[in-house]
Write a structure and sequence with these properties.
heterodimer, A: mainly alpha, 2 domains, 5 helices, 0% strand, B: mainly alpha, 72% helix, globular
């Protein structure tokens, strides 16, 4: 059942968002719906066909494999790593305006190296400092892009 | 023509050679950095051109433009992150080649294709500038709407599962219409002012295309097969050159397609690359293997997008109409020089413009030299263990998304798209049709509205010959691959 939910979740979420968007646009003048309305209608039809096809395929796969498909330990580890990466990057996006580019990027790099299970302890200090320094030089000094400045002023 | 030949004697002066090398280097470096493009390079260097003579300014800015178009292919091949929208189809075959340990060869193919595409674009710019630019004047809203439909018609053939591909494409179209419409209505922004101009392309590209791949990389020790042979260095890049030279017909046809699309206002290098890819998929014998890492896929995109430069510059110089952000900035630089934009631009400054055309030819060879060095070293990236590479790429993608508009909102948006893209990949939904829809959705929406407003009946537009040709071509694009599949079965 889990693999079926995995298959159907994304098209369902997409359709749900599309429906809310279409309902919002439907409140405006008809001119705003010229393209959006036919696109949404076709999406609903395709969703129905896709759901039917996916259920049929899932049933056939289940018959073939005689039971639910198991996720390997390695896959679980990769999934967990991915989750940690996304969470650490989200935290970075939230805190970077407060702590500034340099501090936050150095910390993020170190955290990412930890998630990637780097064993050499020197890498946790050297790599974040070097990469952050290069990026700061290229973007801030070279390209004059106003990188986020924290409460410390850099 | 006389001005063009005389132009070479002027362009070979040390001053211009220096500016060409400098400009192409800036373009290549910025093109390589995800989120930064050649257009940005032109914007950054614009203030430096204030005091330059018009020809020097033109040569310098054109060099950045030339370098920027190829630079994006390097990251598209090496880390599955296109430097700009123009190179996004390059990664479909470039990255699988890199994963097989043929990164150097793939880069060589991209470089040689870019150079040949650029040269063919230059030839057309020289001989067909006036007639092609006159043709583009006949492009009204109905024609532009059909151009968008023509671009979207390849959605179905971009992936194996047509149903999922079209569904993703339609989702992309809806995403593309977010923001302020041409009527001034704000749609789907949820009150967020950062979405007023629509979904920004750079975070969307990085999020949807690069993030799922980087997440996937986190589970591997190396980027490529650990026991496989990695093709790196000059030899590998040169072997890629041979692959392009073996396919002269595809190279020329895709370049011609690129030039024609480049002439159309606002169609741009991205559409040219996609159309080149889609058409090649239908023409080539190995069409069914596109997307698995074959040279034809890279040649198709890179020749077309570089050749479109010639077409875009034709409309800029003859009609004074900028077809893209880069050409608009170039026009801005010319206005600062005291030139008046519009059809008189070419008549008033014919000598300088033809000399700039001469420099465009030389720039392609400058790009070949600098690109060769860049490709030879970039190919070594596959030898870096992913535990060090992934953190560096992740920080670069965050910074790339941020630097597009200097807002952390875009970095957040990139993360959101990254998660959606990853989930779509897991559910076997192709990303490329979504990107295509996102890119062309707004154009299709705006032009459809203008078309309906301009005509009594929508069907009236099919009385226009260009619309009719584009409509037939679009239908052929949709049903052609289906018929071919049935025939093979």
């Amino acid at each position: 059942m889990g693999s079926l939910i995995k298959r159907l979740a994304i098209p369902a979420i997409v359709l749900l968002w599309s429906a809310t968007y279409f309902l919002e646009v439907a409140e405006y003048s008809k001119k705003n719906q010229y393209l959006i309305k036919p696109v949404f209608i076709v999406m609903v039809i395709l969703f129905a066909v896709n759901t039917f096809t996916d259920i049929r395929e899932w049933k056939m796969e289940r018959k073939k494999n005689k039971g639910a498909l198991q996720i390997s330990q390695e896959e679980k580890q990769v999934l967990f790593k991915s989750l940690l990466v996304v969470v650490s990057m989200t935290v970075y996006v939230i805190v970077v305006p407060y702590f500034g580019f340099i501090i936050t990027t150095v910390v993020l790099m170190a955290v990412l190296l930890l998630i990637m299970q780097v064993k050499k302890s020197m890498s946790y200090i050297l790599l974040p400092l070097v990469v952050t320094g290069i990026l700061y030089a290229v973007f801030k000094i070279g390209l004059r892009i106003p990188l986020p400045v924290g409460f410390l002023g850099f | 023509m006389q001005h063009f030949i005389e132009g070479f004697s002027v362009i070979f002066q040390m001053e211009y050679i220096f500016y060409m090398f400098g400009g192409v280097t800036i373009g290549l470096v910025l093109g390589c950095l995800p989120g930064l493009t050649g257009s940005m390079g032109i914007a950054l260097m614009l203030p430096f051109t204030y005091k330059m003579p018009p020809l020097t300014a033109l040569v310098f800015l054109l060099s950045i433009y030339t370098g920027g178009l190829f630079g994006g292919a390097v990251t598209a091949v090496m880390i599955n992150t296109p430097g700009s929208t123009a190179n996004m189809v390059t990664m479909l075959d470039g990255y699988p080649m890199n994963q097989r340990g043929e990164g150097g060869k793939a880069l060589g193919i991209a470089l040689m294709s870019s150079v040949i595409g650029g040269l063919i674009g230059c030839v057309f710019l020289l001989f067909a500038t006036k007639p092609l630019a006159t043709l583009s004047l006949k492009f009204g809203p109905a024609e532009m709407f059909m151009v968008a439909i023509f671009g979207l018609s390849c959605v179905g053939s971009l992936a194996k599962n047509t149903l999922k591909s079209v569904y993703a494409g339609l989702f992309g179209i809806l995403l593309g219409t977010i923001g302020m419409s041409s009527l001034g209505t704000i749609r789907g922004t949820y009150g967020n002012m950062f979405l007023m101009d629509g979904i920004p392309m750079v975070p969307a590209l990085i999020g949807f295309l690069a993030m799922p791949e980087i997440i996937n990389l986190a589970g591997k020790k190396m980027m490529t097969d650990e026991n496989g042979n990695h093709s790196t260095g000059f030899r590998a890049v040169l072997s890629g050159f041979k692959e392009v030279l073996k396919r002269p017909l595809q190279t020329v046809l895709c370049s011609l397609l690129g030039v024609i699309i480049g002439v159309m206002p606002a169609a741009g290098a991205a559409v040219a690359g996609m159309m080149g890819y889609n058409q090649s998929k239908q023409w080539c014998k190995r069409g069914d293997q596109f997307g698995t890492g074959i040279p034809e896929g890279i040649i198709a995109c890179e020749t077309a997008n570089n050749a479109s430069e010639g077409g875009a510059l034709a409309t800029l110089f003859v009609l004074g109409i900028p077809g893209s952000a880069s050409t608009a900035m170039m026009l801005g630089a010319l206005v600062l020089q005291g030139w008046n934009p519009g059809p008189k631009l070419f008549i008033d400054h014919e000598d300088v413009i033809y000399m700039a055309f001469s420099s465009l030819f030389i720039q392609q060879f400058v790009m070949l030299i600098l690109g060769l060095v860049l490709c030879a070293f970039a190919a070594y990236i596959v030898k870096v263990p992913t535990k060090y590479l992934v953190p560096c790429i992740l920080v670069l993608t965050l910074l790339g998304a941020f630097s597009n508009r200097n807002t952390m909102f875009d970095a957040g948006l990139m993360l959101l798209f990254g998660v959606i893209g990853w989930a779509m990949k897991k559910a076997e939904f192709p990303i490329m049709p979504l990107i295509l829809g996102l890119l062309l959705g707004k154009t299709a929406d705006n032009e459809l509205l203008r078309t309906i407003e301009s005509y009594d009946s929508f069907w009236e537009i099919f009385t226009r010959p260009i619309v009719l040709v584009l409509a037939i071509a679009s239908i052929a694009c949709v049903f052609g691959p289906m018929l071919a599949k049935k025939r093979k079965a």
